[in-house]
């Protein structure tokens, strides 16, 4: 007189697979956050000096930025993404 339905088992399996995916993604994020300078291996792209533009690109952690700068970054991203 056992159950004939495998719904609960399927749900549990699906949840387990989703957790495994989330854990894999979190591991990648954690590894990225451990890097001191994510752009260290991209040295040729850190400076740009052409056509009258002299730019230096740097990477900062969000915790190092002022709140107004973070708001500006998100608003800029939002504005640029909405036009697509």
From TrEMBL:
Cited InterPro entries: NAA40 (IPR039949)
Keyword Transferase on entry: yes
Intracellular or extracellular location(s): Cytoplasm; Nucleus
GO cellular component, one term: cytoplasm
Keyword Signal: no
Keywords on record: Acyltransferase, Cytoplasm, Nucleus, Transferase
Example of a GO MF term: histone H2A acetyltransferase activity
PANTHER family membership: N-ALPHA-ACETYLTRANSFERASE 40 (PTHR20531:SF1)
Descriptive protein name: Uncharacterized protein
Organism encoding this protein: Paralvinella palmiformis
């Amino acid at each position: 007189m056992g159950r004939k339905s495998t719904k609960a088992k399927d749900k549990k399996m699906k949840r387990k697979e989703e957790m495994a995916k989330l854990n894999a993604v979190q591991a990648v994020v954690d590894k990225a956050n451990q890097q001191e300078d994510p752009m260290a291996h991209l040295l040729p792209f850190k400076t740009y000096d052409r056509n009258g533009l002299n730019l230096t690109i740097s990477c900062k952690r969000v915790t190092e930025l002022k709140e107004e700068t973070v708001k500006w970054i998100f608003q800029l991203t939002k504005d640029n993404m909405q036009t697509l």
